[in-house]
Each structure stands twice: as C-alpha cells, then as structure tokens.
Amino acid sequence: MSKTFLKIDATFKNLLRLYNRHNNETLKILEKENFSINDKQLLDWCESGVEAGYTQLYHRYSKSVYNSVYRLVTEVSDAEDLTQEIFISLFSDIQKLKSIENLGAWFSRVAINKSISHLRKNKVYFSDVDGANIIDDSEESLEEKQILDGKIEELQQAIEELPTDTRTIVNLFLFEDMPQEDIAQLLGLSHNTVRSKYHRAKKKIYETLQQTVCNE
User: Fold this and answer.
1) Which of 21, 105, 109, 145 has the maximal Cβ count within 10 Å?
2) Residue 24 has pLDDT above 80, yes or no
3) Domain CATH number, residue 169
C-alpha cells in the first residue's frame, strides 16, 4: 500500500471522527444558520485544504452511497468497508470530481460499479439465459404496479430472498432507476436475459407479497 494512500486513508478516518463527534466549528455554523452551500463550493474548500468541505460532502452523499452498496452486497460490514473505500478513492482526486456535472449521480454510479466488482470477486456470476423469452410491456406494467403497491419492508424482504444475480438486476432497476439496457451492459448480459430475469423475479416477488397478505 502506497504512502499516499495511507495518508488519504488516515485523513479520511480523521474526517469521519470529526463528523461523528460534530466538533467541526464550520459545520456547526452552517447547521445553525441553515446555510446551504453547493457541491462546487465544497470541492473548492477541499482543494484549499478545508476539512469542512470533505465532511459536508460525506454528510451529503454517504447515506445514498451506503444504501446503493448495501442493496447489492447485502452484508453490513461489506457495505461499510466499500463505502469507506469509495470515499477514500473519490476524495483522492478532487480535480476529477470538479469536472463532474452531477456529483450525486456520479457517486451512485461509482457505488454500483464498486459493488458489482465486489460481487464478482466473491464468485457471483452473471450469465445469459438460453432462450430468454421476450416479455410483453403491458404485462410488465401491470405487475410493476402490484409490486410497488406493497409495503416497502415486505418488498425488500422478498427481494433479499432472490438469487444474488437476479436480486442485483431488480435492485438496479427498481431502486437505482437504471434502464435495463444499461444493466445488461454493466453485467455483460443480453437485454433479453435481463428482461427475462426481471420478469421472473417480479412474479416471485408478487407471489411472496400475496402469501404475506394471506398469512396476516
């Protein structure tokens, strides 16, 4: 591990300590005055060595990054470690972040890519399905509404019971708003395979939700 990385890692951990203890005076002023500062200004602070820039960016995006990671890896410890790695990596290149137009969308995409890499390292394979069926769009729309009308806790539980590769597709589509064509490209699958797996998953989720209602 390089000295540069160790320095960044130590700095990041110190920023987390400051954030968690709420002892950064600049942040206290911002919170007291309910003052909103945009991402560009925060990145300027980071570039100037002002720690509040890092802590505010972390405060602004860490929850969404963690949620994106956790939905895909489903282990709290892994999600926490990956979230830290993501911010260490992002904060190590402020100049690159300053060139990004939509920082929130970029953070989300980095979180997804990091999570998929983690799954692959842990022997989760994404493969095409032979003879994947073409699904009628009208049929998809009807079941979509039935699924989303369910309670969020029950929906999440039903999704967690799916195989990892299928669960990944469902989470990317439902919660990350990623088009199926993009999911196919990200996972190295055909569009038909993604649609077929998603359709089968929705049927399984709907059956699970229906069973939950019957058992109440």
Assistant:
1) 109
2) no
3) 1.10.10.10
